[in-house]
């Protein structure tokens, strides 16, 4: 029995690497795109102490998706993504607005927005599923993702937006880094910190929206947090951390898609998160800034190239 199971797994593994099925190729590529863009954008959330904002933004896309479906009356990808983008950006803005009030902490603001928006989304999803159009909605996949259901056209959109966001981070790396490490210093040298902040929120919203079909609104935050968190155990330098985060994200996506294909019934999104978690565990223990690495180095401050410690003045893309 065990031999038969092993043979079946080996056959499916060989079948996967022939790349003869479009759905498998789409699942693989979309998962890798999601891993890359979420890791790069998420790195700045982690460094700013805003990790849970990705969770709130991800959950906040659900009411936007449902509202777009009700308005259009069909599962039109463009409309659903537009609704998700608007909902996610509004949620991110509300978190910032509530956080700036003297009576609310940022974590409380995130908890409020996450709960309220997700609750609204679940109510709307229940309404749609009980309506005559329930059979054609297919919106349940947005909760936990369905990478195998990504079409070639959707893959092109995901790849294009992911490439644009990563390129944007590369172009605006210096103001992003300076504003992240010390906003006060950044303002003193003329960096438009408010514009940088809202630009990051916009990038986060886009990254979440293009990722939810592959990993779902529930797990997208994991891909925003785990790869960059693991990367920060591997290096003190921010540019290298971004590269490592991107690599971990891409590897998690590829291996997650492979595991999902290997064992039927295992969703790609959860498989990606588990693989990313394994990368995090390895980095936490064996990384140069991890448990063992700390035994051999005294300098544990995140820095950019050319300096032992990162400061707003030395943060650079070199």
From TrEMBL:
It is found in: Cell membrane. Its main location: membrane. One of its GO terms (cellular component) is ATP-binding cassette (ABC) transporter complex. It is a multi-pass membrane protein. CDD domains: TM_ABC_iron-siderophores_like. GO terms for biological process: cellular response to iron ion; response to zinc ion; transmembrane transport. InterPro entries: ABC_BtuC-like (IPR037294), ABC_TroCD (IPR001626). Gene3D superfamilies: ABC transporter involved in vitamin B12 uptake, BtuC (1.10.3470.10). Pfam families: ABC-3. Keywords: Cell membrane, Membrane, Transmembrane, Transmembrane helix, Transport. The chain crosses the membrane at residues 23-45, 52-72, 78-98, 110-128, 155-174, 195-212, 242-263, 269-288. Belongs to the ABC-3 integral membrane protein family. This is Metal ABC transporter permease. It comes from Persicimonas caeni.
């Amino acid at each position: 029995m065990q031999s038969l199971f092993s043979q079946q797994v080996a056959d499916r593994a060989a079948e996967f690497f022939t790349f003869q099925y479009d759905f498998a190729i789409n699942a693989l590529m979309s998962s890798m795109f999601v891993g890359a863009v979420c890791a790069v954008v998420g790195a700045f959330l982690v460094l700013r102490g805003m990790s849970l904002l990705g969770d709130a933004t991800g959950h906040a896309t659900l009411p936007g998706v449902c509202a777009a479906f009700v308005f259009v009356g069909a599962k039109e990808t463009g409309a659903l993504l537009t609704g998700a983008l608007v909902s996610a950006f509004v949620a991110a803005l509300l978190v910032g607005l509530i956080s700036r009030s003297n009576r609310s902490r940022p974590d409380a603001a995130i908890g409020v927005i996450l709960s309220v928006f997700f609750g609204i989304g679940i109510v709307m999803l229940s309404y749609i599923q009980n309506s005559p159009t329930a059979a054609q909605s297919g919106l349940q996949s947005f909760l936990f993702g369905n990478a195998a259901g990504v079409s070639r056209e959707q893959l092109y959109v995901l790849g294009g937006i992911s490439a644009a966001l990563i390129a944007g981070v590369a172009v605006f790396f210096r103001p992003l880094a300076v504003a992240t490490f010390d906003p006060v210093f950044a303002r003193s040298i003329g960096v438009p910190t408010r514009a940088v902040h809202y630009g990051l929120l916009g990038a986060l919203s886009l990254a979440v929206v293009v990722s939810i079909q592959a990993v779902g609104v529930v797990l997208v935050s994991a891909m925003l947090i785990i790869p960059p968190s693991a990367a920060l155990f591997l290096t003190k330098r921010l540019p290298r951390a971004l590269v490592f985060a991107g690599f971990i994200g891409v590897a998690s996506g590829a291996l997650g898609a492979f595991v999902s294909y290997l064992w039927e019934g295992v969703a790609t999104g959860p498989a990606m998160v588990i693989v990313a978690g394994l990368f995090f565990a390895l980095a936490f223990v064996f990384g140069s800034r991890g448990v063992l690495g700390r035994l051999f180095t005294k300098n544990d401050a995140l820095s950019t190239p050319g300096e032992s410690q990162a400061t707003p003045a030395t943060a650079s893309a070199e």
